[in-house]
Every structure is written in structure tokens, then in C-alpha cells.
Design brief:
Layout (H helix, E strand, L loop, with lengths): L1 H14 L7 H4 L8 E6 L4 E5 L11 H12 L5 E3 L2 H9 L12 E3 H9 L4 H11 L3 H14 L6 E2 L12 E2 L2 H11 L3 H7 L3 E4 L8 E4 L4 H4 L3 E9 L3 E10 L2 E10 L1 H21 L1
Antiparallel strand pairs: 1-2, 1-11, 3-4, 5-6, 7-8, 9-10, 10-11
Length: 279
Amino acid sequence: MRIAGLISCAVLAVVMGVSSSPAAAADEPTVMAASAYVVDSTGTIHFGKRQTRRVPVASLVKVMTAYVVLREARLSDTITISATDVKYAAGGGATTAGLKKGETLTVRDLLYGLMLPSGADAANALARRYGPGKTAFVAKMNNTARALGLTDTRYTNADGMPTPGNGGYSTAVDQAKLAQRALASSTFRTVVGKKVHTVGETSLHRRHTWRNSNKLLSRADGVLGVKTGYTSAAGYCLLFAGERGGRQVVGVLLKDANERRFATAEQLLDYAEEQIIDS
């Protein structure tokens, strides 16, 4: 009788739709990226997939570049673009901010050129100035990574380009930690949250209009940024953040498909919000 009663209870539970598995698990988004991680400002982890695997992260490297520059520079500092800055980006086939030799721009504007169109020319100019020299600047990037506890991160350049060493390596967890620190800066948040930034023509520089490569900003409300990236070794990457359920949610997708990364990020933000509300 006892066994029969237990079986009857189990049958009833199925009929009533009761399950021992959490309901949220059935709604978890399908994530095709090789590595992924989502965490909120309370430290609650909402998603993880090979999140501690060391891989190249392409232009997500520029988040650290911006972070170091913001610690070293004044936004009103000016930098004159050199022929080396322009040739470096063009020679590597990287995305650029369209800078020209002899132009002089402020650090504030170069940060937009670095983060929105992902300009390797802007990265080179900033690293050259605030190393001073690129070798010294990369050393500052690595020292900062250690200071922040990013134990699975190493940089070889300021832009994530393939040479040398694929720009180094990091993990989804470390990139999320870095984003959380960087987003504490109001200047950083302003830059990465801007869809378009225009620098008007002056006697010191041409007019520049830079559009943010992060399409997530136009797909969902409450998105804060942060950065896209691509190389053949890293695949399409996305570091993203948004306000959800009264918390800041940060996510990382590494080695994904181009358009899919934005759709997946939107789903992950919604998923995190559901978990926050239900908690």
C-alpha cells in the first residue's frame, strides 16, 4: 500500500505539472558561443559555459586599454596622430577610426575612436603616449590585470590584433570582472553607451563620425555597452552589460557567430532579469 501510494503521488505530481527540476532551467537560453558567462552586481551567476577557459578575446582587449588610459590620462590631454599609428592599423587589416597623420585630438575623443569603431589607430596612439611606448603600455595592462585579480589574463598588445600572440588570452570570467570595474567609471559608461559620436572639424583635426559596432544598444532597453571583437582565432566576441531587475548584469560571449551574439546577449539579459525577479 505504501509503494502504491507513492506511485499515485508521483503520477499526480506529473498531472499537476509539478517537477523536482527548477522551472528556470527549462527557459535557459541556448548559447552556441564557445565560452559564455553572465553575472550581476550582487555576484549572482546566471549562466556559465567554459567560462574559465583561456582564449584570445580580440578587441575586447581594448576595454583594458581604455581602463589603463583613464587611470593615466586627463581627458583634456591632446595627442597628435603619427604616421606609425595609421600604418599600424592599416598594415594589420584592423578596424580603424579613420585617423590621419598630423591630426591632434583629445584623449576623450580618442576613447570614442577606440571603443565605438574599435580603432586600432586610436589604440596605438594612446598606448604610444601613455606607456610611454607600446611595450611599457602593455606592461601596465598586465600589471593592472594582476592588481584586479585577473589571474587568467595576459596581454601582448593594446588592441587584440593577431600579432603578436593573438593579443594574449583571457577568460569569460576575467572579462566580466574587468567590465564591472571599468563600468564604475562614469566616463567609460558614457563612451561605451554612445551609439554615435561626432567630432566636429577644427584647425587641429578633420570631422569624424564614429558609430558603435555594438548592435545590442539598439536591440534592447537598459543596455550599457560594452565592446565587440573579432579575429579569426577569437571568432566573434561580445562583452555586454545592462540594467535588469535593479541590478547591473554583465555578460560575455566568446567565439560566437556575428549576428547571433547580439540575439543571444539579449536573451541572456532577459533570462537574468527573470531569475532576479524570481529570487
